[in-house]
Amino acid sequence: MSQDTGQQRLRIWKRILREHDLRLTPARKAVMEILTGCDRPLTAQEIHDRARDHRHSLGIASVYRTLDTLSDLDLIQRIHHLQGCEAYGPALTGHKHFLICTECERMVAFPGWDELDDYFKAEGEKRGYQVKDHWLQLFGVCPECQ
Amino acid sequence: MSQDTGQQRLRIWKRILREHDLRLTPARKAVMEILTGCDRPLTAQEIHDRARDHRHSLGIASVYRTLDTLSDLDLIQRIHHLQGCEAYGPALTGHKHFLICTECERMVAFPGWDELDDYFKAEGEKRGYQVKDHWLQLFGVCPECQ
DNA sequence: TGTTAATTGATAATGATTATCAATATCAAT
DNA sequence: ATTGATATTGATAATCATTATCAATTAACA
């Protein structure tokens, strides 16, 4: 029987907040519930809207603040679209990247590749750069949208 | 003797504009001169500032319009930073990506890898996705900033 | 249950981008 | 070169996203 991974992640996030002496407030819980359960990038505004559907009185400023907090804790990461605007999704543990549907924005993760890192590092060194990080996103069409 | 590739690129861009029945105006020339000669991502505001240093009366709206135009023609591409905001840089011909210095933002291009495409496509197919595009940026520290 | 400091929501302030529109300038035709 | 049709411009207003401010609230702990 498959556990809901969103629930699991939520529990972990709450523990990490406590470990950092951050209070577990309704506003933070609402944002976290939405983010741990989502399968596509969400903007601050979208998170705000979704939270309001279930709870009242969640300020948009608190959404931004919670996003910053979760981002500092590396629990979420920014997602860039081809056409500009940004959104957030849960951060991936281990070396993983996102594949995002250009139609419905649904996203799935796929594993990185060790040889990839070596290649990136080598390409950087050729040019005198110390490669610290890379940003990789795949764009395509998901099964439902084909 | 090495030609200034910026100058070359500028000539090509002007030709492409004409081929698309787009007029060669001072505003567009100014934005293109700056972009073809730049070695780091520039925001619309930065382009506006630089243009004003050399020419007067370039409206910020025209900068945005020209960026859209050049983007539609695939002459420039958006650059995303790890921390949110966006900028533009000249688009790369062929299959190339950017390596950006996290200190000074200077960027260099490096070639893509055919096996990489195959890998991306395969990872997508495993999940039922048709992979159309990928977004890859490397971040590191350039020789001067080390 | 009371205390204290972190956190919140409402709102003002800021900053970036887009829309509007009359004035201007490009380019082709003459 | 001049002209005319129309794409383009700059200034500004409007919109939208994000950040700052601050008094009121509340989570966490004794």
**Considering DSSP H and I runs of 4 or more, what fraction of the residues of chain A is helical?**
40-55%
Known CATH architecture of the largest domain in chain A: Orthogonal Bundle
- Describe the global form of chain A: globular
Spatial ordering of strands, largest sheet of chain A: 4-3-5
Description:
2 copies of one chain form a homodimer. By secondary structure, chain A is α+β, with helices and mostly antiparallel strands. Chain A folds into 2 domains: 1-90, Winged helix-like DNA-binding domain superfamily/Winged helix DNA-binding domain (Arc Repressor Mutant, subunit A); 92-146, Dna Ligase, domain 1 (2-Layer Sandwich), CATH 3.30.1490. Chain A has helices spanning 5-19, 26-37, 44-54, 60-72, 114-126, and strands at residues 76-80, 86-90, 96-101, 107-111, 130-141. A 3-stranded mixed sheet of chain A has the order 4-3-5. Chain A has a two-stranded antiparallel ribbon with strand order 1-2. In chain A, strand 1 (76-80) and strand 2 form a beta hairpin. In chain A, helix 1 (5-19) packs antiparallel against helix 2, helix 2 packs across helix 3 (44-54) and helix 3 packs across helix 4. The longest helix of chain A is centred in the N-terminal third of the chain and has 15 residues, at 5-19. Chain A binds chain B through residues 78, 80, 82-84, 86, 99, 101-102, 108, 110-111, 113, 116, 119-120, 123-124, 126-143, 146, and chain B through 78, 80, 82, 84, 86, 99, 101-102, 108, 110-111, 113, 116, 119-120, 123-124, 126-143, 146. Strand 5 (130-141) of chain A pairs antiparallel with strand 5 (130-141) of chain B, so a sheet runs across the interface. Chain A binds a DNA duplex (30 and 30 nucleotides) through residues 21-28, 43-45, 57-62, 64-65, 85.
